[in-house]
Structures are given as C-alpha cells and as structure tokens.
Design a protein that fits this description.
Helix 1 packs across helix 5 and helix 5 runs antiparallel to helix 6. The strands form 6 sheets. Strands 2-15-4-11 form a 4-stranded antiparallel beta sheet, with no helix packed on it. Strands 3-14-13-12 form a 4-stranded mixed beta sheet, with no helix packed on it. A two-stranded antiparallel ribbon has the order 1-16. The protein is an alpha+beta fold. Helices cover about 30% and strands about 20% of the residues. It is built from 7 helices and 16 strands.
C-alpha cells in the first residue's frame, strides 16, 4: 500500500472576503461580482493536480460486475481486491442514545435496567419535575471480515449490455456459479474501469477497498481547499487576475490601457504563485525523505556478495 500526505482542508470564504475588500470599489459599483469564484477555484485545483483534493476511503460491494461510486468521487488512487477472512469484531467509536428499548417503553413506572422504578408522587407535584423516560445508550459492533489482497489495474472493460457475442451465456454453469470471471473485453484479468459514475470490474461479485480523490464542500457549498500558504496565495492572486480580466471586457471609467496594465501585473503574480505552489506540493515530507534514504541505501543490495555480513561506511567490505 502506498503512503501519502494528507492536507488539512479549509473553506475559501476568507480568500473571497479578502479579494472583495481589496477591490471594494469595483464590487460596490457592480462592475464585478463573486459569482464565478467557485469556478475559478475549481480551475486552480485542477491545474495543481490531484494532490489538491482530499483523499478518502470507501468499501465497494461489486454486484453484477459494477458498483456505484460515491457522490464526491473525483479520481481513483488505489483499488484493492479484498477477500473474506475470520476476525474479531470491533466496537463503534460513536454511541446512539434513544428513549426506546425496542419499539415501546413503559412510562409509569419506568423500567430501568430491567427493574421497575416507581416515581415518588410528592416529586410529581413539583413544577420543575417531570416523569422522564429512561435513555438507553447503544454501541454497535462491526465484524472485520475482509483483507486487502492485491491492487487492481486500470483498464478498459466492455460492458455486458454492449456485448453481442455468445460468451455471455457461459458465465454461469448448471449449478449457478460463475465459471468465467475474465471477460474478453477486459484489458487484464484484474482490471477495473470507471464509467457512468460506476466502478466496473471483470468479476461478478467481490469486495473492493477504494482509496480515491474526493471533492469536499463546506456548509455554503464552497469547495474546500488545502490549508497550505502557497496554494492559498495562488488562489488569491488568481482570483484578482480574473477580476481585472473581466473588467477589461467591460466599459468602465478607467481606460483600457490602465486595466490592461493591472491585468498583466496580477497575471504575472498569479503565474509566479502557481510555480511556488507546484513546487510546494512536490516537496517531500520527513517520512518520504526517510523512505527515499532507505530505498537508496538498499538499492544495490542485490549486487553484494552473499558472504559479506558487515557494513563498513556505505559499503560492505572486509576489515583488515
């Protein structure tokens, strides 16, 4: 399984407010507005690549060669074929509180922990007192019955409804079990395809552990952006550049040359900010550097002599 660095994601509302405040005169006159801000942010994230999207996991249950993808799906990072194993169940970290234990609950007298609880009549005369039903706390348990086995390969798979050949009638034998998992239209035996918002495979039923890039939104419907200084600066300067590009296509009090000079200035700043943001997302974190050092250290192990048991410096040599 590959390793990756996960950013913290924030709402771009603060960037929107900063741009609107700095270009207040243009927004007050109605020359520009913030209607296209989400579109511009989406352009910035697509230009930066998949590293600017959140990485999340989901378990897909394949039925009839396909499964529906999550609503926030953007692109696949890893798709693992899983197999069923026997393991101990685990308890959910969250709890569910309810005033019903089943379908009904006895109010008077209240039944708590299997025993009748009689309410004091004198206590009911108090205006602040009320006959409150018992509250039950439930923690569900989930069985762990799947294990990741191997990675699936991306490829093109012919959909069954688009196939007119006769091999489709041989998918099941007389007992009803599938006998041919590998469809002729597939690139390989363990390939998958993304089509019509569905995860399509060349095996009829299975469990797939999917690690994918997702698009997350805040309560106002704005797409979340990485909480990284270089990335937020690029989005901020790109928005200002697009505002002046919009102004050059309209009739304003300023001359076209004045607006064009401002647009060229902010475009240059946006391009420079993009280079810095792209360099930032390509940097290795501490753990990636450690893995790279170990990988380079063991790079030529296959060429070492088998009777060398000690390492001197960066090479294995006999000590004199």
């Amino acid at each position: 399984m590959s390793t990756y660095y996960k950013y913290n994601f924030i709402s771009p509302e603060s960037i929107y407010a900063q741009v609107q405040e700095e270009l207040k005169s243009y927004f007050d006159t109605g020359a520009v507005d913030s209607l296209m801000f989400p579109t511009y942010v989406d352009k910035c994230l697509k230009k930066l690549g998949k590293s600017s999207y959140t990485i999340t996991q989901e378990v897909l249950f394949i039925e009839d060669f396909e499964a529906r993808l999550p609503d926030n799906f953007h692109a696949v990072r890893e798709a693992w074929m899983c197999t069923s194993i026997s393991a101990r169940s685990y308890q959910s970290a969250s709890s569910f509180y309810s005033q019903t234990f089943g379908t009904t609950i006895q109010v008077v007298p209240s039944v708590i922990a299997g025993e009748d609880y009689v309410v004091d009549p004198d206590a009911l005369e108090c205006a602040d007192c009320d006959n409150t039903a018992a509250v039950y706390k439930t923690n569900y348990e989930f069985p762990r019955v799947y294990q990741k086995m191997y990675l699936l390969k991306p490829g093109n798979i012919s959909a069954r409804r688009n196939c007119d050949v006769e091999y489709t009638s041989l998918w099941n034998d007389a007992s009803g079990y599938p006998v041919n998992y590998n469809t002729p239209g597939a690139s390989s035996f363990d390939s998958f395809d993304i089509r019509d918002n569905k995860f399509v495979t060349n095996f009829r039923t299975a469990t797939v552990y999917l690690v994918f890039y997702a698009t997350d939104y805040d309560d106002l419907g704005n797409q979340l952006i990485p909480d990284n200084y270089r990335i937020t600066e690029y989005i901020y300067k790109f928005l200002k550049y697009k505002m002046f590009e919009t102004l050059t296509n309209q009739t304003n009090d300023e001359t076209f040359n004045q607006l064009q000079q401002k647009m060229i200035f902010y475009k240059q700043e946006a391009d420079e900010a993009y280079i810095l943001a792209e360099s930032e997302i390509k940097k290795q974190d501490v753990y990636a550097k450690q893995r790279a050092i170990k990988r380079n250290l063991n790079r030529f192990n296959m060429y070492e002599l088998p009777n060398k048991s000690e390492r001197f410096g960066w090479r294995r040599n006999y000590r004199n």
